[in-house]
Amino acid sequence: MEFRIKYITEDIKLSCYDDKLFKTEVVFDHHMLVWFISGETKIIQADQNYLFRTGDIFLIPRNQLATIINYPKDGQPHKSVVMHLSIDRLRQFYAGINVNNKIAASENIRVFPKHPLLESCLASLLPYFDVQEKFPENIASLKITEAISVLRTIDKDIDHILANFEEPYKINLDDFMQNNFMFNMPLEKFAYLTGRSLTTFKRDFQKLYNQSPQRWLTRRRLELAYYQLVEKKRKPVEVYLETGFENLSHFSFAFKKHFGYSPTELTAKGLPALANKGKK
Question: What pLDDT is recorded for position 21?
């Protein structure tokens, strides 16, 4: 597996991946502006899936859980330019700009239509990756400011995302967990995104479900996998990555331990659905 990242600055990077598949489950601290150069990326969120290909430009909002699966495609590596739009930098940009943030910010990925201003802004970064000496911070800052300005020009609603500096507040734990259990994230991240300390999260979780988070998460992920295999007629190799498992062997072991038969045996036997459990 060969995964290479080259940074212009800590906020601008070029990533390149040559192997068959690279999967990660993340929640970003900053908004991520991505320009897709080659390869293919599938992004799975709680309520929507996305497939991105060469030339696509999109923004992943901060504090959103996502499973990201990257693939080389057509003999080309998976390659992208990524720009971090940090809260500190956005605060500086929006200082003195009056923004009406009464409209709730969308939690979904923002996909931008092809636009020469945005494409030229991101394409202009490529030569800078060949600079050997330390890249001047003032020039990097200008490029990020340019990108934010272009986004505001082509997307009149983008301020509701970029100028929203609120941190997660305490929300309904059951609603959040039922929508996001398939993301294999540390418990600390689940706690943060539900507006709780880790101690409070574990206490509230035990009170709500009468079992540990780890046990509950494993059961829900396996039920979702069962549903995908039986109702959606998908293959085990297509399911395990999207249901919170790191590899196929671990998925098969956990599945057989829970249900008494392996995913392959399940599909061969054609067993019935799990009484509507695990639907997603």
Answer: 79
As a whole number of angstroms, the distance between CA 169 and CA 193 comes to 8
Q: How far is CA 124 from CA 112, 133, 137, 257, in A?
A: 18, 18, 16, 53
Same-domain pairing of 7 and 146: yes
Percent of the chain with pLDDT over 90: 61
Count up the domains in the chain and report the number.
Answer: 2
Q: What CATH number corresponds to the domain at position 145?
A: 2.60.120.810
Helix runs in the chain, H state only: 87-94, 116-123, 137-154, 159-162, 173-180, 187-193, 198-209, 213-230, 236-239, 248-259, 263-269
Q: Looking up tokens 């392996």, which residue turns up? A: 262
Share the mean pLDDT of the chain: 89
Residues 142 and 92: their CA atoms lie apart, in Å, by 12
Domain that includes residue 122, residue range: 3-162
**Tens of pLDDT, residues 121-130:** 999 999 988 8
Which uninterrupted H or E stretch holds 44? strand 40-44
Residues 264 and 222 in one domain: yes
Which pLDDT score, from 0 to 100, does residue 278 have? Answer: 44
In angstroms, rounded to a whole number, what is the distance separating the alpha carbons of residues 82 and 60? 10
Please check whether residues 157 and 177 belong to one and the same domain: no
Q: Are residues 52 and 118 in the same domain?
A: yes
Residue 225 and residue 251 in contact, taking contact as beta carbons nearer than 8 Å: yes
Predicted structure pTM score: 0.80
Q: What is the mean pLDDT of residues 86-113?
A: 83
Q: What is the number of helices (H) and of strands (E) in the chain?
A: 11, 10
